[in-house]
Amino acid sequence: NASSAADGQQISMELENDRLMVGQEQVAHGHGFQPGESVTATQYSTPYDIGTSVADDNGDVTFTWSVPNGTEDGNHTVELTGETSGSVDASFEVYSTGGGGLSPTGGDMAVPLGGLAIAMLLAGAGVWFVTRRRANA
Description:
The chain has one helix spanning 110-136; strands at 2-4, 10-15, 19-20, 25-31, 38-44, 48-54, 61-66, 74-82, 86-94. The chain is of the alpha+beta class. It has two domains: 2-94, Macroglobulin (MG2) domain (Immunoglobulin-like, Sandwich); 109-136. The protein has a five-stranded mixed beta sheet with strand order 3-9-8-5-6, with no helix packed on it. The chain has a four-stranded antiparallel beta sheet with strand order 1-2-4-7, with no helix packed on it. The longest helix is centred in the last third of the chain and has 27 residues, at 110-136. The radius of gyration is 29 Å and the shape is rod-shaped.
């Protein structure tokens, strides 16, 4: 999204991630602020103060934060507000893992148990072969 600053310059921002889970890192890049301007960042639905940064010589700022615990699933907005340039916002989605609450079934053990079964079969065949060979000798 873009917004016009008081001097007619466009301020804008981009978010690095469209979808995140709680605890994952989000990064916001703001552009077009006045060099040296103090810019604050806030994540909404429930306001979360991301912090304050000073725009560099090009008018750019970057904010990095982890999506806080307690952030509900759904769309959330990040707003960057400059002291003189005004505000700009962008949205992203927070989602759960969607595990559905199913109990583990042990399906991850199929490969190790299959390998063990083959090893035991080969060992048994070897014992049978050696025993039979001794009996015929």
